[in-house]
Amino acid sequence: MAANGALLFAASVPRMRRAFVVGDLVVRDEPTPYPHQKFPYVPFFGFREDNTGIPYGYVRNMKYAQDNLNSTNSKLRWGLSAIRTVRTKGIVDMSDEQFRRNIARVDADIVLNKIEAAQPGARFDVSRDFELSAQHWQMLQDSRATIRQISGITPSFMGNRGNATSGRQESIQVEQSNQSLGLVMDNFRQSRSLVGELLLAMIIEDLGSDEQTVVIEGDAITQGRTVVINRPETDPVTGKAYLSNDLQNIRLKVALEDVPSTNSYRSQQLGAMSEAVKSLPPEYQAAVLPFMVSLMDIPFKDKVIEKSKKSECRKRPNKSRRVSRRRCRTHWQNPATTSNGGNWRSRNNVPRAKSRKSKRGRYKSACRRLTRPCRRAGR
After folding, report:
1. Which portions of the chain have biased composition (kind: Polar residues) (predicted)?
2. Mind listing the pLDDT tens digit for each residue in 291-310?
3. Residue 341 has what pLDDT?
4. Model-level pTM?
């Protein structure tokens, strides 16, 4: 027993190893070079049973409906091609086996026995049923509807015409389909993340411990950048040497961000953003323009965004002189806004005029002195 009261017990801990085998000969056996303890195979499971853990998917519950659909369809096809005959014995001038083999053909040639056909009560009738009954058709539709109901997919989600009468109902049905597929998509996303971790481990093994520069490409909005990995550096405090961004001694996790990149999704985003930008002021519209261009499918998209950013910076006016003159006029008309109780001359170190001047002359001289530092700052 440990000091804190914990109990120690023996347990089996899995360890992964990598071996190369040629026939019955083990060429190499070593610990795995990867940081994870997983097999290099990633299963994609839809669902798993609670007690046994056996994986299964939607197909398990669709098998009966699909078998019923296939059997009904095959029976209907056989019924459409079958031929029904009613005849008296000996009326045909051939054996029964030859008659059954020839009567099923479209171009059948049947020779009747003249003596037997002349007998009272002789009969030879051939009938074909080329019509599909309503009961058979209903069975087919029931099997198809069962398959759709098991999958949880609505016609609106598949882009078909359903029973929705408004756009709100269409959105609700699409959301219901997304909710029904939530568990399967979560398992799919988890398997994809595991695939990314295995691939990342292989990339780290290939990079090794050598210093390298990795270029992270940007997009239409974010600029690209470079990151140096495995850079030898020295700690200024302890003087010990270490590797900056050491990939061999770090545990990385892969996170997936499912962002649709189809043309229809970008067009939908562009339409929604365009409607929102219409009500904004012109200066805000210019700021959002690069983001809208990034959603467009146009050539030279990066250059268009760069030009729009440069033109936006070029159009920004220099308002220093205008603001300083407005501030001067405000202090002259409302002396109570100054910090010294209205003595704006002492605040700005402006000497009092000895000679008597008009209000207009004093206002102009004060504005010249107050706007002089603002002009220098604007230059």
Report:
1. 331-349
2. 888 888 777 777 777 777 77
3. 46
4. 0.58
Same domain, 363 and 269: no
Number of domains in the chain: 3
To which H or E segment does residue 17 belong?
Answer: strand 17-22
Could you tell me the residue range of the domain that residue 355 belongs to? 327-378
Per-residue pLDDT reduced to its tens digit, 7-26: 888 888 888 999 999 999 99
Q: 263-277 vs 282-294: helix axis angle to the nearest 10?
A: 180
Q: In the structure, how many helices (H) and strands (E) does the chain have?
A: 12, 10
Do residue 79 and residue 155 come from a single domain?
yes
Residue 258: closest CA among 170, 156, 190: 190
334 and 309 within one domain: no
Closest by alpha carbon to 220, among 311, 302, 310, 295?
302
In a domain, 271, yes or no: yes
b/e 253-281 (16+ beta carbons within 10 angstroms → b): eeeeeeeeeeeeeeeeebeeeeeeeeeee
Helix (H, G, I), strand (E, B) or coil at 245: coil
CA 144, distance to chain mean position in Å, is 29
Q: Which 8-state DSSP code applies to residue 247?
A: S
Mean pLDDT of 186-195: 90
What lies within 8 Å, CB to CB, of 91 at 6+ separation is 112, 113, 116, 117, 122, 123, 124
Written as six digits, the tokens of 236 are 């200024």
Domain boundary among 180, 196, 224: 180
